[in-house]
Amino acid sequence: MTNAINQRQxxxxxxxxxxxxxASSPAVAGSATNLAQLRRLTNNQAVETHPRWANDxxxxxxxxxxxxxxxxxxDLQPHLYWVDTxxxxxxxxxxxxxxTAAVEQWAKDFLGSVDHYSVTADGVLASARLGTxxxxxxxxxxxxxFHKLTGWDGTYEILSTTPHxxxxxxxxxxLQKPAEVYLADSADKLSQARPITSLNHLFAERDLPQxxxxxxxxxxxxxxxxxxxxxxxxxxxxxxxxxxxxHGGPADADGNHFEADWYQWAALAATNGWLVFEPNYRGSxxxxxxxxxxxxxxxVSRPGKDILEGVDALVKDGIADPAHLAIGGYSYGxxxxxxxxxxxxxxxxxxxxxxxxxxxxxxxxxxxxxDDAYFLGGRPWExxxxxxxxxxxxxxxxxxxxxxxxxxxxxxRVAVLEDYLLEHAxxxxxxxxxxLIFPGEGHSLSKNPWHGKIKVREELQWLQKYARQ
Length: 469
Fold this sequence. Notes:
Blueprint: E1 18-19, H1 26-29, H2 32-35, E2 39-40, E3 45-53, E4 59-68, E5 80-93, E6 99-105, E7 113-120, E8 123-130, E9 133-139, E10 147-148, E11 155-162, E12 165-174, E13 177-184, E14 194-195, H3 201-204, E15 210-217, E16 223-230, E17 240-246, H4 266-271, E18 275-280, H5 289-293, H6 301-316, E19 320-330, H7 332-343, E20 349-353, H8 360-365, H9 369-376, H10 384-389, E21 403-408, H11 416-429, E22 433-438, H12 449-467
Parallel strand pairs: 17-18, 17-19, 19-20, 20-21, 21-22
Antiparallel strand pairs: 1-2, 3-4, 4-5, 5-6, 7-8, 8-9, 9-10, 11-12, 12-13, 13-14, 15-16, 16-18
């Protein structure tokens, strides 16, 4: 695997799967003759990831991060594929007029997304999302359907297997079970798995938030789902202060898993007295490719309606206190926060991070420009009106919500200039705001763990100051 020095991925054609036949003799392995045997296996508009050989040493499994292996670029949920390295796909010759290999999707009828997979002696085990749950499924042949294995409610991820043993290792968590590594004797004994780490025992000794899925109807009749996470000891109580916490991606989803870091801090907000609402709006994974694609080309307005209608439903049901509403998110969650504070003044406080407020400059500065153009139905000169209509900056004069802004100084996924633009606009309008820039950080605040601690501390204080008084 190679990356450009500038870390930018501007063409999906730059990412394909290849194979090279390595000679058994070390003296020959690096020779020019040997490297000339490099063969491209795929030729598509997708970004392939996580390649693993099947047990037959002929097929190569892989997943796709963004894009589609079957035709023109479009973002789908993560699915599981394999490519037959010995069977050419004669209908799809590559640019060198040589035949690429035949690609096939596994468990094509599965509605959700495949998050992780592991090759076993009998086929494949996959941790896959349906709605707010991520379970383990087994499948032996490509055309078969996923078979859900009996286990606990919650989230399974990072599976590890070996062809020489039935044992399975995995990471598991739920809202009230912090993440640990578990070991099961076999796939049919997941519910008897035992933890082999105790890295988060401190959390397990405390009263953690409880949660449950929540569903509502959108204006077009579509059922939308999210998670409600209640403060400890207040499960299913009414009239609670509400923090709407929007996940990034957008091809991601919130659900029944433990989260306590700078990016996913719903449990921390709940512990500080907030009922946290995590909406899985249009564009989220785990609900089918059609649901995910309905964000195109209305990148913020369609999911924005879904989210506001969810808040409306919570207020109508008496669950949320309409006098104490707050909103926030990071990355695409920041996009949505920036947009939604232009659509309503009902939120008393907002915390946003690494989110764009316009799309032309963001398209030009993003490290993956092809997905920006996809989501908006074209490049800036091809869809200028949509770039205008779906941008918060052109409606920013409607904002009355005190807004806290966070960014990494070296972010190339969402350029820090977007955050400066938002701060400057709010300042010029006299809207209370605060801009927190972390030096040396990119899109992920992973350089210094203190940065994440400071971020969440300041965001919680902002919510308390403006939305809980």
